[in-house]
Design brief:
The protein is of the alpha/beta class. Helices cover 30% and strands 26% of the residues. The strands form three sheets. Strands 1, 2, 8, 9, 10, 11, 17 and 18 form an eight-stranded mixed sheet that branches. Strands 5-6-4-13-14-15-12-16 form an eight-stranded mixed sheet. The chain has a two-stranded antiparallel sheet with strand order 3-7. α1 packs parallel to α6 and α1 runs parallel beside α9. The relative contact order is 0.19. The structure holds flavin-adenine dinucleotide (FAD). Flavin-adenine dinucleotide binds next to α1, β12 and β16.
């Protein structure tokens, strides 16, 4: 049986970035992926690099907004990670960080923007509240209906189809073994090590990192551990290509909308509109199966896009798709070592396109140095109570 230092389950952005960082640091690493690299949410997402507090943290009152502030510190680190990544990897990942506007159309939304920017300011994230005219001076394509915006000069986007494959190659070049088409089916603890078996797979590792996105709870269950991470299915849309028009990331504080223009010229439109997860016959959800598109999500998403960037109405929609990602019980990502099972690490949930490079780097630091304080608010320790009866 093969022996390695770290096994990583999941060939998405988080797993590939962690494999690269850990292998570059000298660890022997195996990255195990059931399908191909980038088959999960990392290859299906909107590619937004959003560092402002997300709308989903604002729509349910102040308690969640307070938690969101916990990850503002990580967002500040992520800005630097994204600014450095193309140089670090020597590759063009179509990273564009020309600023982002989170817009408001009503007086209530403007007040929400002001409260959000004040909270961000207290956490050291520089976000300016500007009125509609100033927003249109920066972004002339915005509708006259935009009353105000929060502007963050660091926000932007990158290419989800490029980033993860390049990270996987960097991991391979650093010495990691990349095992695709290999689905993990059992994990046992043997003599303090993790014995991992699956398709053409039989190895033991000192440490195991679960970076399996929407499947992470299933992997933890193989080790008799409850991890409250749930699959959710979202909608994305792309228009035909057009002339360069929208250099910024556009989000909405009161409606579900993210909009950006890719390097090739397409408008990518998303923002968290739901799709319907496939179900298993016994009443569970099946993240492996394609999620079903909801017509009202499609029309609602496109309506929001046209209301904020009216020129989008002239473009043909060329593709809509669904993707499955993970959300945790308290909406914050779950990142760190599991206290009841030393050696078991988890990194899943949240907006891990924006934050995934940072999770990976900090996990590699924590494994080498014993801790990474910036990850403390995300520790799986907050869910230990769920495992009190798990034996
Ligand atoms: C439509 C959509 C839009 C999004 N937009 C954004 C955005 O704009 N910005 C942002 O920051 N985030 C966004 N997200 C979230 C983001 O995509 C995810 O947080 C991130 O990609 C998760 O990366 P990951 O590596 O953790 O998981 P994934 O990319 O999902 O990778 C997990 C991998 O684990 C593999 N796996 C599962 N089980 C096993 C097993 N038993 N054995 C081996 N391998 C296994 C899967 O095949 C999969 O490839 C969006 C998500 C969706 C779906």
């Amino acid at each position: 049986m093969e022996r390695i230092d770290v096994a990583i389950i999941g060939g998405g952005l988080v797993g590939c970035a962690a494999a690269w960082r850990l292998a570059a640091g000298g660890a022997s690493v195996a990255l195990i992926e059931a399908r191909d690299i980038n088959s999960g949410a990392s290859g299906q997402n909107a590619g937004s690099l959003h560092f402002q507090i997300e709308r989903r943290f604002l729509e349910n009152g102040d308690a969640l907004a307070g938690q969101a502030a916990d990850i503002v510190a990580l967002s500040r680190i992520a800005v630097d990670d994204w600014r450095a990544i193309e140089g670090d990897l020597g590759a063009d990942l179509h990273v564009s960080m020309q600023g982002g506007l989170m817009v408001a159309e009503t007086a209530e939304e403007v007040a929400l923007l002001e409260r959000k920017a004040a909270r961000e300011g207290r956490e050291g994230l520089s976000v300016r509240t500007i009125d509609g005219d100033e927003a249109r001076a920066i972004a002339p394509y915005l509708s006259p209906g935009v009353l105000a915006a929060n502007f963050s000069s660091d926000e932007g986007h990158a290419d989800p189809r490029a980033v993860t494959p390049v990270l996987a190659e960097a991991a391979r070049a650093a010495g990691a073994s990349i095992r695709t088409q290999s689905r993990v089916q059992s994990i046992a603890q043997v003599g303090g090590r993790f014995a991992i078996r699956g398709d053409r797979l039989d190895l033991t590792a000192d440490r195991l990192l679960v970076a399996a996105g929407a499947w992470s709870a299933n992997i933890c269950a193989l080790l008799n551990i409850h991890m409250p991470l749930y699959p959710v299915a979202l909608l994305m849309n792309a228009t035909e290509r057009t002339r360069p028009m929208v250099p910024h990331l556009i989000q909405h504080v009161g409606r579900r909308l993210s909009l950006k223009q890719t390097y090739a010229g397409n408008m990518l439109i998303g923002g968290g509109w739901p799709s319907r997860l496939a179900q298993t016959p016994d009443g569970g959800f099946d993240p492996w199966a394609k999620a079903i598109m909801i017509p009202e999500s499609l029309t609602g998403n496109l309506r929001a896009a046209v209301d904020i960037v009216p020129d989008v109405a002239r473009l043909n929609l060329i593709r809509s798709w669904t993707g499955v990602t993970a959300i945790s019980a308290d909406q914050l990502p779950v990142v760190g070592e599991v206290p009841r099972m030393p050696g078991l690490w988890v990194a899943a949930g949240g907006s891990a396109f924006t934050l995934g490079l940072t999770f990976a780097r900090l996990i590699a630091d924590a494994m080498a140095e014993g801790s990474a304080p910036a990850l403390a608010p995300l520790s799986p320790a907050r869910f230990e109570h769920l495992n009190g009866f798990m034996g």
